[in-house]
Structures are given as C-alpha cells and as structure tokens.
Task: inverse folding
C-alpha cells in the first residue's frame, strides 16, 4: 500500500511562517528569515509533499518562493480571496494563523487531487504583435475615423 500524499499549507506573515500538513494534521512554526526558510525547505524536502500552498502576502512570500523553486518542490501561490472563499465554503469561519495554514493545506489537498484529473495544459501561442502595438493601432484607427467623420460635417 502506498503512503498517503502529504499536502502543506503555509501561512506567511512578516516575522513568522505557520505550517500545517495533511493528512496527519501536524502543525509547526518557524521564523520568516533566511535561517527559518532554510530549515523549512530541508524539512519539506525530506517529507516529499505532493503540493505546498501559500498565500500571496504582498511580498513577504518572495524569499520562501525562491527557495521552494530552487529546491524543486511543488508549490502554488494562491490568491488570498480564493482561499478565504474556500475556507468559508468548508465551514472555517474563524481566522487565525494556525487555522489559515490548516485551510491552505486542505485547499492544497482538494486542488491538488482535482488538478491531477485534468489533462495537461496546452501552451498558448504568443500574439503576433505585442498587445500595446495592437491597442495603439486600434486607437489610431478610431481617432482617424472620428476625425474623418468630423471633417465631413
């Protein structure tokens, strides 16, 4: 029998990282500095999580995201509004750092299992022109038609 997949939720604040893990329900905290992030990445590397989810918190998550990417750990930075809506949907009305970490771990579990059912994403072909060039062309076309209509009067 294969061991259950581990999903990690990390609540990021200026000074502290609160971490929750499912399905075992483990919870711990570490500092949001170089030493704390290094310790966390080592610990996560040993546990081999299926997915790590953290919220975008106005830049406090950048050092952690850089280290997770360097360690090649699977992670996603979630929109806080979506995570909060998910929390309300599953009945978490309270909001503390520990609860937020647990909600994100649950979110990772649900989203991680759901995304494994989806077919591989296709790459989107780039636009033939940069968007700004197309927008300025449209503006100039509209302006010239408007000036022609004005001149006819």
Result:
């Amino acid at each position: 029998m294969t061991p259950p997949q581990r999903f990690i939720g990390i609540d990021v604040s200026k000074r502290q990282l609160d971490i929750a893990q499912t399905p075992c329900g483990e919870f711990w905290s570490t500092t949001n500095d170089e030493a704390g992030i290094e310790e966390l990445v080592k610990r996560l590397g040993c546990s081999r999580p299926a997915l790590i989810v953290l919220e975008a918190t106005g830049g406090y998550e950048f050092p952690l995201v850089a280290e997770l990417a360097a360690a090649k750990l699977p992670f996603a930075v979630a929109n806080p509004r979506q995570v909060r809506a998910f929390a309300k949907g599953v009945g978490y009305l309270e909001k503390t750092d520990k609860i937020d970490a647990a909600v994100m771990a649950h979110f990772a579990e649900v989203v991680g299992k759901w995304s494994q059912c989806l077919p591989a994403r296709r790459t989107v072909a780039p636009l033939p022109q940069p968007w700004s060039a197309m927008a300025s062309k449209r503006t100039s076309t509209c302006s010239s038609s408007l000036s022609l209509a004005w001149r006819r009067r």
Q: What stands out?
A: DSSP finds five helices and five strands in the chain. Residues 8 and 72 are 15 Å apart (CA to CA).
